[in-house]
């Protein structure tokens, strides 16, 4: 299997953010807590995002110091290893507050010539 390029990784992040947005647009924390299948799908997409951002070059990340790159990469470890203690309200906070700035940064990185 061929190794994914940085462009591929950026597309993975964008697709996962779009999927999460599609699940939760116009929804509330109560909706999130009530839907275990969509909550699990959201966590899966956050895992994808977490892994993909690990492969974005540091020089690209440095252009966006307001993005908590280390925290984004780290959420994957929490979801994998601390799955039994994941707080749905914290994941919801990521969905509503943290994905839009990441989306804008990823789109900007992707628009630059390689």
Automatic annotation (TrEMBL):
Entry's Gene Ontology cellular component terms: toxin-antitoxin complex
Cited Pfam families: HepT-like (PF01934)
GO molecular function: hydrolase activity; nucleotide binding; RNA nuclease activity
Keyword Endoplasmic reticulum listed: no
UniProt-listed InterPro entries: HepT-like, HepT_RNase_toxin
Superkingdom in the source lineage: Bacteria
Name of the molecule in the record: DUF86 domain-containing protein
Organism: Rhodomicrobium vannielii (strain ATCC 17100 / DSM 162 / LMG 4299 / NCIMB 10020 / ATH 3.1.1)
């Amino acid at each position: 299997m061929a190794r994914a390029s940085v462009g591929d990784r950026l597309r993975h992040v964008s697709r996962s953010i779009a999927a999460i947005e599609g699940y939760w647009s116009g929804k509330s924390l109560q909706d999130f807590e009530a839907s275990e299948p969509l909550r699990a799908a959201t966590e899966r997409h956050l895992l994808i995002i977490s892994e993909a951002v690990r492969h974005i070059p540091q020089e690209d990340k440095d252009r966006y110091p307001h993005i908590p790159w280390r925290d984004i990469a780290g959420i994957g470890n929490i979801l994998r290893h601390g799955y039994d203690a994941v707080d749905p309200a914290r994941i919801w906070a990521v969905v509503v507050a943290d994905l839009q700035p990441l989306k804008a940064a990823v789109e900007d990185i992707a628009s630059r010539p390689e």
